[in-house]
Amino acid sequence: MNEEEKPHHQNKTDFKVNEDSKNQQLEQFREDPKDQFMTTDQGVRINHTDDSLKAGSRGPTLLEDFHFREKMTHLDHESIPERVVHARGSGAHGYFQPYESMAEFTKAKFLSNPSIKTPVFVRFSTVVGSRGSADTVRDARGFAVKFYTEEGNYDLVGNNIPVFFIQDAIKFPDLVHSIKPEPDSEMPQASAAHDTFWDFASLMPESTHMLMWVLSDRAIPRSFRMMEGFGVHTFRFINEAGKARFVKFHWRPTIGAHSLVWDEAQKLGGKDPDWLRRDLWEAIEMGNYPEFELSVQLVDEEDEFKFDFDLLDATKLIPEELVPLKPIGRMVLNRNPNNFFAETEQVAFHPGNLVPGIDVTNDPLLQGRLFSYVDTQLNRFNSANFTEVPINRPVCPVHNHNGAGFMKMTIGKGKVNYWPNSLGNGCPMMAPESAGGYVHHQEKVEGHKIRARSESFSDHYSQATLFWNSLTEPEKKHLVEAAHFELGKVETIAVRERQLANFYKVDPEFARRVAAGIGIEVPKDLEVISTGNYEENDASKQMKKGASVKESPAVSMERNKIETAKSRKVAILIEDGFDSNEVMQVKEALEAAGAQAKIISKLLGKRRSSTGEAMEVDKSHVTTGSIMFDAVYIPDGQQSIQAMKQEGDALHFISEAFKHCKPIATSGNGIALLERAFVLGVNFASNTSGEVMSHKGVVTAGSEADADEFAGQFIDAIKKHRHWDREEKTMVPA
Ligand code: HDE
User: Fold this and answer.
1) Which of 11, 175, 510, 566 is the most buried (most CB within 10 A)?
2) Structure confidence at residue 35 (pLDDT)
3) 402: annotated active-site residue
4) Does the pLDDT of residue 635 top 50, yes or no?
């Protein structure tokens, strides 16, 4: 071996990524038909694609028609199995950038340099529904991020809820079977509201904490851009010196976490089943780039047992009041995929895609996931070569001896495909840790081979109670109503009762409120069946029982509201004769605050103002509805208002927005329209004690009022998102 041929350790910093690295890599695979001839897959130009080759124009099609056969074969093979869970998803490209070096805690390169923007691909999803199901169903949402780092792909495959239903992966198939459509009838689609799910859940007290989150408004997000994300499990950070710490990951949207209301979510499922997908797509197209801050909770290894729950138990969170969040960087999603199938459908996540400096723990749920994700990709792709599909390829170099198989893309050179070898100069080489070789964190493990769980996992209610205690009253009300819906759909009374017994252990008052809506009493015999084989051990003895908090305001969305009008959609209802000066001023103010205003009218086309100006209508009533907007504004204009008073669609639009507690603004004649739409009490305008009948988030002004001031009040109401106190006060039929 001469000097040049000797293996030398490539320094891992030889390879650099930047924000555009993934985009450049994908560019090699993109196809652009502009100014090109259509060809067969073999590159032969096609002369005619409207008629098959026949023996006579009325005769049979000929087998030799290679173009017809190829075209049809492709269609016949266009689908792959959908994901068994998280089948419906939406993807986006972007980048992640740390605020400062995290080298003190982890040697992961992409977290160590604030000037590096690491490309990411994110896939948001629902869990239960099939690929064509509605976006707005009650469900957890997947929040999976693939970081294309210079040291390989790192996947943070999380959810928008910080805990999970079960503690051990062996129960995942049962959980999924129970929540999916029932096997005999294949009903219901994308819903937990049926007997088999609640049968299972009620027999599994460990699911109670997650159930509280799933029944809460978290499970009906207003937008993928407005939901939090959580790594759920406890992972490990390891620094250059080998010191390890436990870590939990949190994503927080910079425009705050917000939800739909249930009635709205259900209606959207029919009117726009793509609601969340469309919202994400359009926001990115318009330059309203979704942004999320990544934070971590760090726990020293020595502190493993200082809590009254086990860090390895995925049904528990670490209350932020005990371990505060440390913000470490920000993710911006700024590019839509070019092709849904090639990117969003073919992206394959795996919690075991780790980079040096990040490792797993013994959480038995996480351990099971480490097996499942690659296994399920093999079912989807029918080949281990799915890692070579463009969206899944790392941007850094890949060299190994992994073999052939369906759809192998890479052309390995030479005859050496084994290790150790001398014929290939020992290449590709082993990387020492100093050159970025991944070394698993060393941990002493010993124990008996036993099918059991640690006793430290046995408390299933404290954190469910903590969650309940931490919500505001409107949030509690929504949760109770969600339970009325879900358990109301359960036909078997014994299942309802068993679930109530679980809820009673969370909080007796909560159980009573649920019971009141489903026509049964809280059962007297409150024996709860507990599955799982819990074994007392060192960990359970060391744990500090009762060391936690009773309330955690951090889990309430309402208590952590970020007030912004950015990217909020405002409907402006007009008919002929509207006040154009007012509209222009209010619209300008809304847009300056970052909101989007759309003109809605009975029919598409142009509407004329009272002074003759024409305004283009964006959407007609038949193509939209109040549920597709965050706020409603009805400009003054006698004739316009008069027309809307006679228009069921307009009245419905307003009263429905009111029922959903959305901000509404109008001036002058519009006040009478709000009266008619059940929004304001009759004679509001002429009533001197109008205060009494006014409602939070309903902004009214006289005809002569200052439009800027009026717009300012409206924008303040929009920033608050919803005005829940209206829920109690009104009887709106919409
Ligand atoms: Fe998953 N999960 N999961 N999961 N999961 C899948 O992998 C699984 C769990 C999550 O957008 C599947 O590629 C097991 C927790 C997301 O492509 C499958 C267990 C969390 C996605 C699978 C869990 C998740 C998946 C189906 C319990 C939050 C969608 C398709 C042990 C931390 C990723 C696929 C995407 C997808 C297995 C529990 C998040 C079957 C066995 C907890 C976001 O492998």
Assistant:
1) 510
2) 97
3) no
4) yes
Bridge partners, 543 (sequence order): none
User: What is the mean pLDDT of the segment spanning 489-502?
Assistant: 96
Nearest to 643 by CA among 575, 565, 572: 575
- The pLDDT of residue 545 is above 60: yes
ipTM for the predicted complex comes to 0.98
Q: What is the pLDDT of residue 4?
A: 46
Contact 576, 640 (CB under 8 A): yes
Let me know if 47 is a catalytic residue: no
pLDDT at 644 over 50: yes
- Residue 6 is predicted with a pLDDT of 47
493-506 vs 462-470: helix crossing angle, rounded to 10: 80
Ligand 1 centroid distance, CA of 230 (Å): 13
Q: What is the mean pLDDT of residues 437-459?
A: 95
Answer yes or no: is the C-beta of 175 below 6 A from any ligand 1 atom: no
Any idea what DSSP says for residue 602?
S
> In angstroms, rounded to a whole number, what is the distance separating the alpha carbons of residues 219 and 212?
10
Least Cα distance to 697 among 652, 637, 654 occurs for 654
Task: State in Å: Cα 380 to ligand 1 middle.
Answer: 14
Average pLDDT for 539-565: 90
Which tokens sit at 623?
């193509």
Q: Is the beta carbon of 250 within 6 A of some atom in ligand 1?
A: no
Catalytic residue among 153, 159, 385, 502: 159
pLDDT level of residue 128 (50, 70, 90 thresholds): very high
367 lines ligand 1 (CB under 6 A): no
pTM (2 d.p.): 0.96
Kindly state if the Cβ of 125 falls inside 6 Å of ligand 1: yes
CA 133 – ligand 1 centroid, Å: 18
* Domains, in order of start, for the chain: 58-392 (2.40.180.10), 465-559 (1.20.1370.20), 563-728 (3.40.50.880)
Neighbours of 516 (CB within 10 A): 13
Query: Which residue type is seen at 43?
Result: G
Closest Cα to residue 98, out of 118, 80, 82? 118
